[in-house]
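PROTOCOL LOG
Step 1. Enter all chains and additional molecules of the complex.
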Amino acid sequence: MTDTAAIAERLVEMVGDRAEAQATVTTGEAALTRFANSFIHQNVAEATPAVSVKVAIDGKAARGTDTRTEDSALAALVERTLEAARLSPADPEWPGSAPAAPLPAIDNYDEDTAAASPDRRAEVVGRFIAAADGTDAAGYCDTEALVVGFANSRGQQGTTRRTRATIDGIHRVGTVAGSGHQTSVRLGDLDGGAVGALAAERFRLAADPFDLKPGEYEVVLAPECVASLAIFLAFYGFNGKAVSEGQSFLEIGKQQFDEAIDIWDDPGGPGALGLAFDAEGTPKRRLDLVRAGVSLAAAHDRKTAARVGGASTGHSLPGLEIWGAVPSDLVIGGGGASEAEMIAAVDRGLYVATFNYCRVLDPKTLVVTGLTRNGTFMIENGRITGAVTNLRFTQSFVAALCPGRVLDLGAEVRHADSEFGPGLVRCPAVRLASWNFTGGAEG
Amino acid sequence: MFDYATAAVEGALAAGAAYADARVVSTRTENIEVLNQNVQEVARAESIGVGVRALIGSSWGFFATAELSAPAARAAGARAAAIAAASARVPGPPVELADVPVAEAFWESPFLEHWAEVPLSDKVDMLIGVTATMKGVPGIALARAELGFFDTEKWFVSSQGHRIRQHIVESGGGYDATALGERETQRRSYPQSFGQYETGGYETVRAWDYPGNSQRIAEEAVQLLSAAECPDGEKTLILEGSQLALQIHESVGHAIELDRILGWEAAFAGTSHLDLALLGKHRYGSEIMQITADATIPGALGTFGFDDEGTPAQCVDIVKDGLWVGVLSGRDSAARAGLPPGGMVRGDGFNRLPMVRMTNVGLLAGDSSLEEMVAATEDGVYMATNRSWSIDDRRLNFQFGTEIAWEVKKGRLGRMLKNPTYTGITPQFWAQLDMLGGEAERIHWGTPNCGKGQPMQIGHTGHSAPAGRFASVRVGVKG
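Step 2. Run joint prediction.
Step 3. Record the structure below.
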């Protein structure tokens, strides 16, 4: 295995005393088996190193990346990045490199998953497809193994790693579909048959949908919908850059959410997929963002932390530092209800399996428009009475979770996919007092 | 580099592939971002590697490695074949490939001033100046400007004898000004949101006169805070060119992708409302709607010499006199549908499987002008510059927001409107197209951030569009 930390240290040595330097080297293999029309049609894998070095000369900073790890390529990367830094104006907010600090003992890694063959992924896919007869199944099973090495000129250095495996798919006929999803650190945990059975059950319930008049409805949102809410709260709200620029809704110390809501970011612990440090080498740890509905904190990298006179929380995103500091191991705490119990509590409302194509209309109020997908169901008198065609919504994600609006939280907290990728959010289903649907299939 | 691609193909064939192709791709990029006169990012990236595609039975196998040597390339080919073979555990109908000419060629996108030859300090200084002008407007909190550049070389080899080298240079960028209200943010962007990108050198950036528009953009952002809300209801809607370009991208470009129509993207990107049985019969829009997918337009972002299957770039009719007549396709999807291959398959770098991608999917010019559209409108809204976009998985039900709008009353532009949105259903919406700008107002807009596929790929696509008018559209949807 490539010694990523050694390469990172080599880069820092090459920079020497000519500049501050931080280097990150990521290696590993990612593989994805994709199926549609109930057979595997695209099956891919890659082993692409990512080498990144950031240098700063009296605050004049530049970043360079490459896919090569041999010494001559590393030297060329260092020289062209130094040249770019020399030609850049100083950044008055350059926060300096992270100090040397102990790293947490986080190791979300499974050797069996890292070595997974395409045959293993095909087995999971086969069981997903076999869970229903007469449908067109589509989706993917993937495995990912990352090893990340870091070093900087202040002596911080280390290695962290993780694996992830996901099965995600639908059973469909024509425009009627049901979905299922499972993510774990271990491929061996994935139960393609059970996930396929859930998708098949939702597909059966989704038959013969009718057009519902748009309006405000009480909703039970499955975890995949809640994951979309969490992602938008993280990127637009808990992001220290958005906060410091006045573009976030976040008001620390204020009761902005229902008292049932707890949100935190945690790279470790059972079920987590996080790494031990962030893109700047800052150790990662649990960060409480919302407790009992009260906003407690934003996520920060070194630059945004300096703006508010605080310390980095370890949330600089590798390669995406320009976006700010974003929690990427989010957890929304669960409650005590099962999804069936939440549905049973609804007189008239909707159960939604997934959201799709969510986009922000206003970042500060976090008004988002999007659509329902792969299962939207009418609930009447505590039971699902039929399927509804996909609906468009236009809804503030903050207002939806504000005091008095969260009626129930599911007991099961699990990894839930959103349209932005797997492994970012663990959350329960929720029952909300209202959701603003603004259009149906016919506009 | 051809030797590495050849070794990869040989490795795949030796491991049992019925067909194989490989691309060595070398990419250099430069990105600069400035916020409030301070440089936020100067990033230079290089990548090089080989990606090999092997076909066995009903599935493609693909493997990519950044290790460039003949043994590593050969091993990558063998891995691709083994991955394809594993797909046989869940088999389907065998993949067939439509015939294309076997080419040995070199193609280069024209450019006058390569971006790498322009001093970094010149680019940074220009962006700092633009943000200084915008930040100087009272009420502007955030003045952001960016430039992005790409230089891509590809060496393509197939087991059928293709041997093609391409060199594509792309340049672009843009800026935006944000004004913060107590409970709202208002933003204006130039030349369009997310920047305007084209094939070409730094001359494409100079042509947009970044400094000359920065004061106006910032003033408009501030004015939006006190502007009236966009009213709701059915209105005549005039769309500025870049917004119409995105409307084409979302409600035409993705809908005509043959892989979506065939269900290959069903679980993620989605399918399409289009049914191949209705090709040549389905009315997509009004009779003035003429759309082509033209990969040969000089300077447009979706222009190339050959796609990543070695098929020559071409211009294909998509909507003719309002009728749906064409699709975006590759060799496998075209063979499955019994259609000619369109040469529209591209991959995002060496480490992604090439897939059906938009080229330059755009409107041909009409015979009107923005001035005439406004003059001919009794009660309407003119919307400009995208702010949000959302459309369903069949590309039917959409809702767009734009940064700014103006009321149109009795043939004149009136007061500024904020938070404009409009919504519709694809064929009904396009059926309302009743006026379209002429060639003088048509711009080859570029979209540098089109996401598709698993693993995710970012595509560069072009969309030619002037301004257009739609007779009756629901506007002013609120949250």
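Step 4. Note key features.
Residues 206-230+334-439 of chain A form one domain.
Chain A is about 20% helix and 35% strand.
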